[in-house]
Amino acid sequence: MNTILSGSRDTSVRLWDIRSGQQIQVFNRHTDQVLSVEYSPFVIKNGIGNSNVICSGSLDNAIRFWDIRSNKNQLYMIKENKEYYEIYCLKFIRLKKKIRQRIIERFVLFALLFKKLKKLRSMFFKA
């Protein structure tokens, strides 16, 4: 992968080509500074094939998931309306769970909005 993500004070998330230094895409839905961006381990299967997902966190109290291959579409948003739920950082970690003698790897987003993770997980993982 020859890309890098950036979050900005101008409320945008940008995808850049490292080799050329050119901006590839810009994602605009946040309403305050974007302080954290991360490539997600999630891959979404849709009508145009597999799509890569990126994630952004902002001072607008929102975590947004973006499909980088489908024209800047926002896939999902987690948002709290409480002032102290600003998102300063986010990180995906790998959790392993043993089921019937096999290991299933799962990824979980760690953020300040733990209440909303159950709904998010149900979008990406079947029980």
From TrEMBL:
GO terms for cellular component: U4/U6 x U5 tri-snRNP complex. GO terms for biological process: mRNA splicing, via spliceosome. InterPro entries: WD40/YVTN_repeat-like_dom_sf, WD40_repeat_CS, WD40_repeat_dom_sf, WD40_rpt. Pfam families: WD40 (PF00400). Keywords: Repeat, WD repeat. The keyword Repeat applies. It comes from the Eukaryota. WD repeats lie at residues 1-26, 27-76. GO terms for molecular function: U4 snRNA binding; U6 snRNA binding. Signal peptide: none annotated. This is Uncharacterized protein. Gene3D superfamilies: YVTN repeat-like/Quinoprotein amine dehydrogenase.
